[in-house]
Amino acid sequence: MLQLFEIFMSEKKWFIFYRDEILLTQEKRLPCSPQLPKGLETPHAYQELPEVDGVKNLAVRSDVLPDEKWGYRHVGLRASHDVLPLSDFRLASKARELLHWDEQTRYCGRCGQPTDRGSVISKICSNCGNELWPTVVTAVIVLVYRRSVTGNRDDDELLLVRGRNFPGNYFGLVAGFVETGESMEEALVREVKEETGLEVTGIEYRASQPWPFPSVLMSGFFAEYKSGELTLQREELLEGGWFKRNALPVIPGKVSLARRLIEMWLEE
Ligand SMILES: [Zn+2]
Asked: How far is the CA of 136 from the centre of ligand 1 (A)?
């Protein structure tokens, strides 16, 4: 349960969200103070965050943007990756996920009554006892590569696609959500086939990353091209193709697992 009086006595970081943007100070840092930072005396939702190094940080959803005189910068969560220390970005991502969860679970999905807080990361329905926890949606992202017939690594190729829903003009990797009753490997094979018409083999897990848009766990794999002609699913992809190491188009920013997987491949 949130003990506001106790919480307001100690110095803490504030993760203040207005829509999908996070408020930072002029120095591009998180506001840090015991009390609610200046200019935010308006209705909003609080979400206590799990304790880090003995500090209970707070996430806040503000329904209005503070007046300019208070000097906040507001940047998209994705863009904040480039200005915040990584540990703060990770906390901000968690804060955003928990605020989203809080908003989505005000009422019990079983009986429709308002829910109460159980703990920092749980709620309980006082009417029927239903417990609600933050859910994580599982998605896979896959780097598909094709070895050159010459054996020269500079002639190996990487499959890159440009999705209609990408928030920028760059090429990324095939990705998609894991469906009910599916393993991650099965989801990967299905997504590659659906989006590109290709068959893959040699699936290898490489890395994972929480992706707070709004609450996804991305699991990253490598897979080797096996067969098929590249046939793009036009409802999802604008363009795509095979690229050699020395001729890559614009690739995703450092915030993404796609970028990390591509960099791994480039270094191998
Ligand atoms: Zn209920």
From this structure: 21
Residue 36 maps to a domain: yes
Q: Ligand 1 centre and the CA of 43: distance in Å?
A: 26
What are the distances in angstroms from CA 222 to CA 46, 60, 83, 128, 255? Answer: 40, 38, 30, 45, 19
Asked whether residue 81 falls in the same domain as residue 195, the answer is no
pLDDT in tens, the chain (268 residues): 445 555 556 788 999 999 889 999 999 999 999 888 888 876 678 888 888 888 889 999 998 888 999 999 999 999 999 999 999 999 999 999 999 999 999 999 999 999 999 998 999 999 999 999 999 999 999 999 999 999 999 999 999 999 998 888 999 999 999 999 999 999 999 999 999 999 999 999 999 999 999 999 999 999 999 999 999 999 999 999 999 999 999 999 999 999 999 999 999 8
Distances (CA, A) of 257 to 10, 111, 201: 35, 39, 21
Determine, yes or no, domain membership for 179: yes
Distance between CA atoms of residues 261 and 188, nearest Å: 15
Q: What distance in angstroms lies between residue 116's CA and the mean position of ligand 1's atoms?
A: 10
Boundary of a domain, candidates 60, 80, 104: 104
* Cα-to-centroid distance, 126 and ligand 1 (Å): 7
Q: How many Å lie between the centroid of ligand 1 and the Cα of residue 194?
A: 39
Q: Helix-strand-coil percent breakdown of the chain, rounded to 5?
A: 20, 35, 40
Domain ranges, residue 244? 137-267
Pair (141, 56) in one structural domain: no
ipTM value of the model?
A: 0.99
**Rounded distance from Cα 244 to ligand 1 centre (Å):** 55
Task: For residue 114, report the distance from its CA to the centre of ligand 1, in Å.
Answer: 8
Distance 132 CA to ligand 1 centre (A): 10
Q: How many domains does the chain have?
A: 2
